[in-house]
Amino acid sequence: MSNSSDSDALAGARERIDALDARIQALIGERAEIALEVARIKQAQGRSDFYRPEREAEVLRRVAERNAGPLDDATLTRLMREVMSACLALESPLKVAYLGPEGTYTQAAVYRHFGHAVDALPRAAIDEIFREVEAGNADFGVVPVENSTEGVVSHTLDQLVGSSLSICGEVALAVHHHLLSNAGTLDGVRRVVAHAQSLAQCRKWLDAHLPGVVREGVSSNGEAARMVAREDSAAAIAGRAASEFYSLPMLASNIEDEPNNTTRFLVLGRQSVPATGADMTSILVAIRNRPGMLHRLLTPAAEAGVDLARIESRPSRRQAWDYNFFIDIEGHVDEPRVRQVLDAIESEAAFLKVLGSYPRSVGFGAGSP
């Protein structure tokens, strides 16, 4: 008798799921119709701003705020992002340049931020990504900027100095590295290929498990996987996506030395982004060569109660021992308190450039350059 009642309960639960699936599908279709209506309105107004970073950030934050479980915020956010991505593609599909080839963590960052309904354009180098967006061949670009273990990606910072692009967003992803190879066993590996930062992030594991094996740095982990896929005695350090894309078996998983290793990516575009209430402003500052100048630059933020989230220095290349400072300030450039701090810094600095104000990452996922 209990088996019969259990079967009836199961059948009833499945019927309710089927009914909910039909409702969800209908609502997604209704949302898509409204997205097309929005596109028609914007086209009639002569507007081309189909993708609005601040609007997407606000929608995703409300998703998390409304969540009552049992699914976690990251899962619901990911699902909603894909719905938004598909609806946006009906209005105007986005072209997004990233550090390729296919299978890189930067490609994963593209999909995490924009969803999968975009035209993802792999490029061989970071400067190419900047050029593609500047020339209008891509709507946005995604580049790695720093890793919590190995520090900044200096090439990205150097490109920001002379670029006309603005930072429109950020993506923070937890890093999980895997050793991919056709070798079959660790004993068969004679060479390990990866991005230089990934080799550094897995140094202890490599020292312990593959001592003496040659390590070769390449432009990206996706490129490493592409190269290794044609060999039998080499291994690549890359993500799960590269393993699937290049059909490379995983000899070892999660080989990064730091379990909380995270990489931050920047989204580059040609537009400024309005405030959302949870924003970051990035600036570039060149200081005059005087005693105590850096302290004088940072004091206005402390006095105004504005948090400086990050400070990095890079050689300016103007002269020896001269530096540019990249500073992340919590808040938006249009907020009076942030504007006050920027004005005070500019009055003391030799040069100040606002690189962009953008929504803070609603981060989840896995990645690295």
TrEMBL record:
It comes from the Bacteria. Residues 282-359 form the ACT domain. Pathway: Amino-acid biosynthesis; L-phenylalanine biosynthesis; phenylpyruvate from prephenate: step 1/1; Metabolic intermediate biosynthesis; prephenate biosynthesis; prephenate from chorismate: step 1/1. SMART domains: CM_2 (SM00830). It is found in: Cytoplasm. One of its GO terms (biological process) is chorismate metabolic process. It holds the Pfam family ACT. Keywords: Amino-acid biosynthesis, Aromatic amino acid biosynthesis, Cytoplasm, Isomerase, Lyase, Multifunctional enzyme, Phenylalanine biosynthesis. Catalyzes the Claisen rearrangement of chorismate to prephenate and the decarboxylation/dehydration of prephenate to phenylpyruvate. This is Bifunctional chorismate mutase/prephenate dehydratase. It comes from Salinisphaera orenii MK-B5.
